[in-house]
Amino acid sequence: MKHTIIKALERNPVIAAAKDETQLDACLASPCEIIVLLFGDICSLGKLVQMVQAAGKFAIVHADLISGLSQKEIVADYMQQCAHADGIISTRPNLIRRAKSIGLFAILRIFIIDSMALDSLFRLKPADMADVIELLPGVIPKVIRSAWDATHLPLIVGGLIEDKKDVMAALSAGAIGVSTSKETLWNA
After folding, report:
1. Which residue range is the domain that position 165 belongs to?
2. CATH of the domain at 174
3. pTM (2 decimals)?
4. What is the pLDDT of residues 69-114, one digit of tens each?
């Protein structure tokens, strides 16, 4: 799974992020190959993932934002066995470890709000490593480069991405993808 999603990012580095069903419809019509679901609950998630996959796109679920899920590792099993997601995003290393161990594409989301947060990224242990790290906010090229130097993991960025210039700056700094809910950038 990891290699096919990375290849999709190489073809189109913009990741469409859907905050609701209306925006999901726009994601499905976009050229983006990867869609992040930022909404839903345990009852609707399977249907949402199925809609994304029926459109020929990868469904990545932000596990921390789905109503009805806990913080326990079993969430990764649910994502795979019941929702049939292609991968997850979480701020919780325990979910990322479990997701990787069962073959889900795993994205560790890290908020870089200060130098202490950046230092914690530099101290990540190999067991905590995801397939990809997502840094937020995504408009700090210097930090993107530092994160790549420290982890040597593929990086996607998101948050505060406003225009094509922000996308290009992030990609130039070493990110392989940019996650955004800004619909005007999905066709950029």
Report:
1. 2-181
2. 3.20.20.70
3. 0.93
4. 988 999 999 999 999 999 999 999 999 999 999 999 999 999 998 8
